[in-house]
Amino acid sequence: MAAAIEGGAAERAGARILDGVELAEAIRERLAPRVEAFAGVAGRPPTLGLLLAGDDPGSEIYVRNKIRQSDALGIATDLRRLPATAPFRDALAIVEEFNAADAVDGILVQSPLPPGMGADAEARIFDAISPAKDVDGFSPVSAGRLVQNRTGLVPCTPAGVMALLDHAGIEISGRRAVVIGRSDIVGKPMALLLLHRHATVTICHSRTADLPRVAAAADILVAAIGRPALVTRDFVKPGATVIDVGINTLTERQQVVAIFGPGSRKLAAFERRGRVLAGDVHPDAAEVAGAITPVPGGVGPLTIAQLLSNTVRAAEERRRAGAG
Ligand code: NAD
Q: 29, 106, 233, 287: which one has the fewest Cβ atoms less than 10 Å from its Cβ?
């Protein structure tokens, strides 16, 4: 695991490192017999329909990883591609085809959709995805069920964070949690999941006044911002659990030196590759935190593991309901 941590926050840690790679592996191992059992009964593997529209390089990598990990577990994938110039109705037609297909259990539309599809394209696509197949948990029905704490498919990244907290034995009930970020895919569902486990939750965002002071009240601090190293040690209560959801690519040497220091392993990795990943949490936070997730190797691997988990669950539940 140490190699995947690649320095960063973990390099300075007095804190316990919460290893997402190891837990993701354990989650996949637990899913394997369920995939096999489903295939035995259904006569086909659990199946994930993916739509990749446009040519965003990050999306290519994410989709490739999702397919590779599905394959490795015996989950079938059906990848549809659309050019960046495709109209919105083409994306909608693919989602509707997946909705209607008995042998498709989960539907994933890779974000972002091309700008030409319109500013509201993602919301309209999420509206169209059948809730029973909504393995990303982004549809309004899934979001509504989560608000009401009813069973449903939960967004993968926050579900992965909950799995990591539980695996690490971090107490949630009665603790103060602060979530920085209020997006529909990470911040809001994260706050709800913590709330449903009886944490006292504060959601912070770009207009929160005196952010470090608010954050420093947290026993569990989740950073889902998309700003490299914004969360410095003064945001962290001594002994707090710090979950770094941010994935930021640094391409400027100067920025790597400023955040990680001249002798750091991150800088050495940057000299080899010309870029490195940084979380939203500054490495000096690890000197104060009780437990912290590395980037990479923390929350990231759990996101795909939860996607696989949601796909298997959707397949099983559709079968129990008499479909597929
Ligand atoms: P987003 O841009 O939709 O939301 C960012 C949130 O941060 C917003 O709610 C905004 O109010 C808040 N914010 C922005 N600047 C701020 C500031 N200066 N102070 C306080 N709050 C501020 O992003 P997102 O989709 O929620 O993703 C957040 C981060 O998590 C990104 O780095 C993204 O790459 C990463 N991410 C990682 C995974 C994973 O698998 N680990 C999955 C999804 C997203």
A: 29
